[in-house]
Predict the 3D structure of the following.
Amino acid sequence: MSPRVNIVRIFADGDYVFAHTDYNFNVLEIGFEVFRFEDGQAVEHWDNLQHKHSSPNPAGHTMMDGPTEVTDLDKTEVNRALVRSFVEEILINNQLDRLEHYIDAAGYTEHNPHLTDGLPALHSALAESSSNGQRIIQYKSIHRLLAEGNFLLCVTEGFRSGVHSSFYDLFRVANGKIVEHWDTIEAVPARSEWVNDNGKF
């Protein structure tokens, strides 16, 4: 079988282009790709890959389906500020009582392969703790927040089940609320495994 790459969503933010991509190489993976351009040429690249689940999540959504059209270009910076506040307050500082301030409770669509739609499922996932009381998902710091209109990609560093991880979260915003979410989570390799000195972020 020949390798195949299907770019499902692609966006631009200044010197950056970011894409949501379906890979069919030796393994099936979903990825986010980020490129930085200078003088019309790509000069820097980051990515985050996750195994592609073969079946839909409990709500019937795949890791890639859903809207692709960019709208609300005039609201790019307002939407960027909204998502930054969401990530800082909810994901990093765990202020889960503020979820309804950011999430469209009546129409939130989730594409994470393990979750279903709606606010209760998101709240439960973010609140889940291990036996030692540590949150399973821990967001620690934002490295990049790219935006075009109603779509925003946040690149964040943290831990999942104690493993140093990179979180790439793509949000769709409508009418001042987050209405849809896609993501990939990838373990950050140990420094001894790096083949360059650039780092994951």
